């Protein structure tokens, strides 16, 4: 009921803009007059198809505002859940150089070697990288 009154008021405002644009066509020029008339027809059309009533119903409805608040809370909870989620099977990474307790069933890398022993005799940098990775995992 209240939204109907708002729709009628917006339609009357649009009609007033059209009438004003026709009256001031010579004073302001035809381009400005046509633009003002277009705005008036836009307001009348929006009232006629119910857009104004729909928007007024949303703005004036406490249930609609409760729904907006619930959607905001849902988005906030989802974002926080995404930030707190830790992938399964991954532990928090330790700082570089620190070694914490080895997980159960982990393979020991064996005794530490000197730099001369770690260098590969192949001379191929790709194979050296592969050998370094295998050594880190305890595979020789």
UniProtKB/TrEMBL annotation:
Record region (Disordered): 87-129
Transmembrane segments: 6-22, 34-56, 62-80
Keywords: Membrane, Transmembrane, Transmembrane helix
Source superkingdom: Bacteria
Protein's UniProt name: Uncharacterized protein
Organism the protein comes from: Jiangella aurantiaca
